[in-house]
Amino acid sequence: MFAFAVAVAVAPIAIGLYAYVVYPAILWIATLLYSAKSLPSETAEWPSVTITVPVYNAVSSIGNTLHLLMDLDYPRDRLQVVVLSDASTDGTDDVVGGFASRGVELVRATERRGKTAAENSALSFARGEIIVNVDATVAVPRDSLKALVRSFADPSVGVASGRDVSVDPEGGAGNRAEGGYVGYEMWVRGLETRFGSIVGASGCFFGIRRQIHSDALPPELSWDFASALVARQKGYRAVSVPEALCLVPRAMSIETEFRRKARTMARGLSTLFHFSVLMNPIRYGRFAFSLISHKLLRWLPYLLSPFSLVALAILATQSAIAALVLIALVTGVVCGIVLRDRNGIGSKPLAVAGFAVAAVSAGLIAWYDAIRGERMVIWSPTQRPGASSV
Predict the structure, then answer these.
(1) Within 10 A of 267 (CB to CB), how many other CB atoms are there?
(2) What mean pLDDT is predicted for residues 364-372?
(3) CATH of 1-390 given 3.90.226.10, 1.20.1630.10, 3.90.550.10, 3.30.70.3340
(4) Among the four residues 10, 207, 211, 359, which has the most C-beta atoms within 10 Å?
(5) Is the separation of the CB atoms in 227 and 122 below 8 Å?
(6) Does the pLDDT value for residue 343 go beyond 70?
(7) Tell me, what's the pLDDT at 214?
(8) In what order do the strands lie in the sheet containing 49-55?
């Protein structure tokens, strides 16, 4: 019984260490022995591109985003910009309408249907060979689009993901833990690209071949994650493009980040379950290995954490070491809960504690929603301060 309790108590930590430390180490070693061919550094001809901007009530940021998109270095006769408004009610559509003279097209849903439904509808209006999705709250530097699209000169590439850069537009500390995590995630995607394929694209800035985008997704799934999965099913790979920068403003409170994580993880789990066949290593080889390691085994510790805590409490009655670990854990949880709704936590350890509590709480909620079949369709985008260009 004691050995079983120990195994249950350490399981989330062991799985998490594998997913966040061992898996990247395996990728790094593997890419020393084998590396997929490099992405093209030039293209003979620029393909036609449709930029889609799904939006719901982003009146404070959509204007700046569109100004930057209008300034992108890309042939104007090969570029279409379409804003997909999910029945916005705050004046967002009026701001978008002000860009009509510059070629921006507004497609407004008559009722709220969710982000994925809006992205599904894009194919009806898109004229481009490549469809590029841009979040309404980010800043895309002038040369990033060409960097992203250039990767499609490789016929094996079906999806190209930009490199998120977490920024604090107010110049303060912001959510430091979020910024560190984004940097780590981009590093792992770089390793996966060299290994063969990433298993999910950045929702803030990614491109997809039109033929991969041809089939609609169920509205509770996420196109950014599913794009790489659909691409693999159709014989393509997905890549991360380090030169295709996208500036993503940090959520200014951990509470905001908690709500975002709960929503995106629940939709991510639904997407993973929908494409579960891709986790078959016999059929999908390295891609299945990466999908299990990067997604499933990152999310599994959240599901196991309540059982782990109970096991640790049982062990604390028999072991002084377990009791000390339990006290330290409870202290960290209490600090994290107290600080979860604070803005700009100055102390890095406290910021990490708050971020960890938010992540675990979001993970538990996501698993609960996924297991009971909750369909998270309606879109509640994270409100972020506007980012500036570089």
Answers:
(1) 29
(2) 77
(3) 3.90.550.10
(4) 207
(5) no
(6) no
(7) 82
(8) 104-108, 79-85, 49-55, 130-134, 205-209, 157-167, 237-249
Average pLDDT over residues 310-323: 79
Q: What are the tokens at 21?
A: 């430390």
As given in the structure block, the two tokens for residue 264 are 């995106």
Percent of the chain having pLDDT more than 70?
A: 81
Contact 140, 69 (CB under 8 A): yes
Domain boundaries, given as residue ranges, for the chain: 1-390
> Which DSSP state fits 18?
I
Strands 79-85, 104-108: parallel, antiparallel or unpaired by DSSP?
Answer: parallel
Query: Would the pLDDT of 387 be above 80?
Result: no
- The token pair that represents 214 in the structure block: 């041809």
Query: What is the β-pairing status of strands 49-55 and 79-85?
Result: parallel
Tokens representing 341 are: 């709704």
Beta-carbon neighbour count of residue 79 at 10 Å? 21
Find the farthest-apart pair of alpha carbons in the chain and give their distance in angstroms, rounded. 73
Residue 69's CB: how many other CB atoms inside 10 A?
23
* Mean pLDDT rounded to a whole number for the chain: 83
